[in-house]
Amino acid sequence: MLEPQRAQMDKSRGSRSLALLVLAAALCCLLLSPGAARAQEDLDALLQRLPGESPFGRYKVIELIGDLGTQEAIRALVGFFPDEDLRWMAVRQVSQLKAAAVPALLEALRATDADTVRFAAYTLGEIRAAQAVPALIPLLADPDPTVQGAAVR
Predict the structure, then answer these.
(1) Are the CB atoms for 97 and 66 separated by under 8 Å?
(2) For residue 143, what are the contacts with CB-CB under 8 A and spacing of at least 6?
(3) Beta-carbon-side half-sphere exposure of residue 7 (alpha carbons within 13 Å)
(4) CB within 8 A of 14, min separation 6: which ones?
């Protein structure tokens, strides 16, 4: 008689554990989604603010974009590599993000713009991203000597 009750209790515990696990997953989704949406809103607002800023103000905006630390923010910073006025500020912020920046930088190595490729390679060198070496090797044969130099670095 005791055995069926024990089996029922074990089944009940298993159901409660599963319910708690589902509840925890749902809470994580609820808590993380607004943060991601908020980060995207912050990024959009910062990008809209950038053109009207003074040089110092642009530096601060680039710094705030880097502080977001999301992949979208990193891609936005990499998007400034062709811009002569903003590239070094963007390189500085991206290089501070270290490993989190590597996927976006590897993606940037495939860009058609030589400045984007050059500064992506340079930043990967600053980060010392060993996993980037296979992607940098083909750049040694790039027709642009500045890209070659960044790949060597």
Answers:
(1) yes
(2) none
(3) 4
(4) none
Is 150 in contact with 122 (CB distance < 8 Å)?
yes
Tens digits of residue pLDDT in 97-114: 999 999 999 999 999 999
**CA separation for the pair 2, 108 (Å, rounded):** 66
- CB distance 39 to 72 below 8 Å: yes
- For 112, the 3-state DSSP assignment is coil
- The candidate with the shortest Cα–Cα distance to 109, out of 83, 90, 128, 81, is 81
pLDDT score, position 6: 57
The token duo for 61 is 């905006």
Nearest to 101 by CA among 64, 84, 76: 76
Q: What is the pLDDT of residues 26-42, one digit of tens each?
A: 444 444 445 678 889 99
- Quote the tokens at residue 47: 């990008």
Residue 37 has a pLDDT of: 80
Classify 85 as helix, strand or coil: coil
